[in-house]
Amino acid sequence: MDAAFREALDLGVRAFDLPVDALARERLERFADRLLAWNRKLNLTAITAPAEVAEKHLVDSLLLLPALAGVGALLDLGSGAGLPGVALACARADLAVTCVDSVAKKVAFVKAVSAELGVDVRAIAARAAGDPERERIPLAAAVVSRALAEPAAFLPLAARYVLPGGLALAMLGREADEVELREAGGRAGLVLESVARHVLPLSRAARAIAAFRAP
Q1: Residues 5, 25: contact at Cβ < 8 Å?
Q2: Nearest to 13 by CA among 71, 55, 76, 49
Q3: Tens-place pLDDT, residues 122-164
Q4: 35-48 pLDDT per residue, tens
Q5: In the chain, which ranges are continuous DSSP H helix?
Q6: Given this structure, which CATH class describes domain 64-213?
Q7: What is the chain's Cα-based Rg?
Q8: Domain locations in the chain?
């Protein structure tokens, strides 16, 4: 990866005071490098400029780190090419991540890159439809989706995979309406605990992470 990638990653880490050490940065850079290499044949991402990959894929994913403090297992539904799951595993060696996606080529990439990086990531080819036992998808202390669906659709699904007392984390690429989020959580049997709002430093794109607690 080039200097623009490293500068963008460093800027995002510093801007949000993220706990990302030197080893994590090395893993993240290798992850991005493999993502773009595989992308030339498999079309894994529409974002290909290195600085944009650093900010809009990696930093965006790493914004979840504060919410995951103390969490040991994460389930990433609709993980695509491993975002945010693999990126988070790069930053936290103690985090066990399960990535679920219905697209076989994306699951193959996640399996290959996770093995290469030596991170604790399991990849499952499945369409999560709310039946974890049949789908053989493990429940987790935290469930996240970056691009699977809007909160009103994601939260009822996430509620089927989160352990009691765990977190469902909705990543939003827009401003968050707390009233709507609270109502959507309530319909899914979840309680809105917090909404963290961010502005990415290079693109100035708005991001929000809504955290919901399971009973």
Answers
A1: no
A2: 55
A3: 999 999 999 999 999 999 999 999 876 788 899 999 999 999 9
A4: 999 999 998 999 99
A5: 3-15, 22-42, 50-52, 60-62, 85-91, 104-117, 132-135, 151-158, 178-187
A6: alpha beta
A7: 16
A8: 64-213
